[in-house]
Write a structure and sequence with these properties.
The chain is of the alpha/beta class.
Length: about 325
Amino acid sequence: MRAIEYRGAGGPEVLTEVDRPMPVPGPGEVLIKVAAFGLNRADVQQRRGVYPPPPGASDIPGLEVSGTVESLGEGTGGLAVGQRVCALLAGGGYAQYVAVAAGQVLSVPETVDLVDAAGFMEVACTVVSNLFLEAGLARGDTVLLHGGAGGIGSMAIQLAVAAGAKVLVTASSEEKIAHCLALGATAGINYREEDFAARTKDLTDGTGADVILDVVGAKYLEANVRALAKDGTLLVIGLQGGAKAELNLGVLMAKRARVVGTTLRARPLEHKAEIVAAVKDHALPMLADGRLALSIDRCFPFTQARSAHEYFDSGKHTGKIIVKT
């Protein structure tokens, strides 16, 4: 099969198309013929040499795919050869075929384009596991989403609004804020021009955000804690702004707040299966009936995967970038 690997660490130029043996599904696994894969920031961080795959995972990048079931490993039930599916991976998605545990696979509704479905699983699992399973986001809560115009942000806006939450977002331009407002966000904050913590307080009558979903990390820690409401939860899921910062524990204690760090890729299979099951309940019905938009920005052919990474690095995209095999 054809696959894409990283030849060293660096920019998009390290992406190299190669021949690899087709994977064989083990017990409880599904072999998927890949129709498309989604591009995620974790792929870019791996490319740059700062986010290696977890032990036992494929060195081929790619954390989500869509396609059809090619074959089933022993002891695999609930799926059929030829079925349209999407899957959450620990790696291996930048290829024509990938084997994955059946618990990380969902059927793609007939109402959804199979290629577009490649942009669903990673962001849906990230959003559901953090906002709902970890933070317990509920009707009437206010959530602040950093990077609201990206793939995770676009999904989080829609699921949070559907749950009855008020959604505030940060973004780098008025165009990206407009994208977020069109998806249901209440207000947008241009982080290049405004103090987002102060603006969050203004937009909540001084209360702050009950939940903050943060992809930046150290650079935003102090301001995030300022922006939190009492009994609030800060969820750190990315480190674009660094990994080390000072935290005023007195402020955190006075607010009875929580700072939670999470990752998805390296979780045990049983944890991923629980998250995928929650996505099936929270998000898949909305996807099937059209209430949930996948917000696909651009789709590239397999031979132009480097261009897809160049476009991601430009920061111009809103929503998901897909590569069609």
